[in-house]
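Sequence in, structure out. First:
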Amino acid sequence: MFADAEGRVLSVGPGGAVVVAGEDHGGSFWEVLGLPVWSLEQALERFPPGRVHEVHAPGGKGTFALRIISLPDCSSNREPRPRSDIQAGPSTETGLTARPASADAARTAYVIIATDNRPIVQLREIYKERIGENIQALENSIHLFGAMFDGVQDAMLLLAQDRIVHAANPRAGKLLDFQGKGLVGRSVTSLFQAEDRDTIAEKIARLKDGGRWTSRRTCLRPDGEALPVEVALWRIDLQGFTLYHMVLRDLTAQALLEKGLRRKRAEVEGMSLALRNVVRSTEKEKEQVREAMLREVRAAILPAVERMAREESPELRNALKVMIEERITAFSESGSADGLNAQTDASANLLLKLTPREIEVCRLIRMGAGTQQAAELLNTSFDTIQTHRKNIRRKLALKGRKVSLSSFLQQHNFFE
């Protein structure tokens, strides 16, 4: 607004209607604005011209910025125009035409700029609220990251581009710094065995933003003990700098399990080899049993069957039948011809090798008959019985042995 030398309002710009609504032009500007003064001198002393003052608006409607500008003397023969350099933000009263109270006198005038601060205050409150929310969100994120960083079971390191450790969680200290010397400030490559250091440095240098690299490597404890780990490395590009997030998973237990698994696998392979050998041996024994059975059938059972088919004597046929059954039973129980006892084998040989007449002689001798008695019972000569006895001993492989034929025959039951 424009005021004359006495402070009376001459005109109000469109933007000033908000502040002076309902007020009449011609009143003093301090009354229009509700300033706590009662004269022009007090107003100029309380609110010196050329400065910006914050003033509470009437009725508790917030505050406004007040600036009083003293204008030089204005000539009466020309119409005053507002100065183009008088501005005060979005609510500044500009473009005002000052009308002097008296056209024939030159006098000092004032430009009073009152800018409503309520939009600025509202904007400030909005920004303050948003900034507070952002700060709280940032604090929550930092707290959450700290909880995750410190609480995970794997070792975690934060690295810069120079490969220096900038942060390490408690698990990393427990694994790699149990002596408490500290990991921060150390080169991350020094934590690995010599064979892995060049690879770690190369991967850090070549990894792109958002990229990830994983590998199984070996760290070194302070005492020089090897620590197998799985390395996971991420690159994170932030505004103005780059970080690397490294996770080290302890594989000691897994390595022990793998070692035990390899040992068990070797044992299983050894057992499998032994089992294969047993199977091969069993198959070989099975083949041997089969061959022995075939030999037994061909050598003893088939001839006995053929002999039994030709034999007319029921007693001899029954004896051959008993012999065949005994041989088959003995073979099935032992699975081998070796299971046949000497008596059964000798009896079989006796039946298969001797003639029917020689078998009759054997039966009589087994019953205790002498040579002469056998000759009489068989209605033949003494010499014939003697010849039969010699042939029987030869066929039974008793010739030249000090074994009684009668005792030998007592051991067999085919002649009862």
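Second:
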Amino acid sequence: MCKVSAIDFFVCPFTSRNYFFSTLRTMRLRHLIAFFAILYYFAGCTVERAEEHILARHANGVKKTSIWVYPDGTILKRNEWYNDGIKELEIPYEDSLPHGEFKRWTGFGDVAMIGRYNKGKKDGKWTVYYQNKKVEAVQYYKDDHPVGDWEGWHHNGQKSFEQHYNDSGNAVGVWKKWHDNGVLAEENSNCHDMERNDSAEYTPIPGYIKRYGRNCKILEYYECVEGQKEGSYKLYYESYGNPDTTGESCNTAQIKEEGFAESDILFDPHTTYRADGTFIKKIKSSFFKGREKIQWFDENNNVVRESNFITEETDGPVESTGITYGTCANSSTLFCAETSFVRSGLPSGTLDSCTLSFKDAYKKNIGKYPASLRYIKAGHVLLYEEFWAYDDPPSSYGDPTLRASRSFYPDSMGGRMASEGFWQRTHDGKSKRHGIWRNWYPSGILKDSLNYVNGERVGEQFSYDSTGKLTIHKTEAGKNRPVIMHILGN
């Protein structure tokens, strides 16, 4: 039995009439017996055509996915198309598994990728192409996992990367990336965040990762353990200029931040620097005590703010109590945020006083309501406050959650409340809007009154103009549910 596709029709051997008589005329008599024996053998050959079955179509009706199937259910191949009818990919099948040469095309009909499958698994060389038919990358597979040396090139022909794998598909050696100007962009030694493909005993090899700018100057350095960034690290200010062709100065740059990264430490100890080398901030912390001290410095390396945390014994994660601060945008000496922590790594407790650099602009409201977090957003005039607290009585979650949030206009605009809303802890320990949420105009006139249930708008929702006139009244029943709009009277 001969299986043939409908598009690549194949006729069984020796069934052509012309071929039959031309062969008779040229063959010698002693070959006739063998000829008729062969003809008799193929007389029982029947032709089966594979038919196309469309599995999906694009929104415009053009076929998107189809398979070619023989009458006995055997799959010949699978095709994908773009919505303009151009073929996107073709995968041959054998025994219902991808097997043979795989091809992918661009939307312009140019070859984008060529590879091979072996019984359903990627195998051998796979090549990726740019639209101009230049090679973008060469990859190798064995039993569906990467092996050998992978390489890639930028559109201009400059090398873009190299990667290395052993026969088990695990990353090995030093991986590299390059900028399109030929300058080294990254060097990675055993800092690959990948799962290992074998169960053999493995001794982690410490590694590192370095990243460089287009002028070859170093930008980042991290130590790694088991593929994760862990250990000392350094970040550098980016500089510009021509690359050092000798490479001697590529690992020298102005330090921006340095510290120690440890997955089990909530607040990694580190020091940040200004571009002139003076300190901005120092954080002292440890695995056993968590945060211990945070210091902020002015341009002359004088301490301008300091936080000291008290660590308490706990059966769970390290818990500390103290207050920390945040600088304003584009400033290292002005402070636009302050947060209280009580036996937690999350905000909690109440700020007894305010140390914001612009606190005098909000005298009417600071301290009026309990606040665990107080801040001024960049580009905004409002003062924002959040109150975080533990459950009462304490729940099994253990951590404090957001309970209420408010914002206030500055005294120069009347100093009234701008918004107020309430939150509720969900079953997963997070906070969602729950209850009445209101916003006001600077004049004190109500702007809108909204009702939330477990993070979704439910119930009556009202909006007003600056004169206090009702402009919108609707009834909602949650996300993606019908909304009832009420007609307002004159």
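Remark: The longest strand covers residues 47-57.
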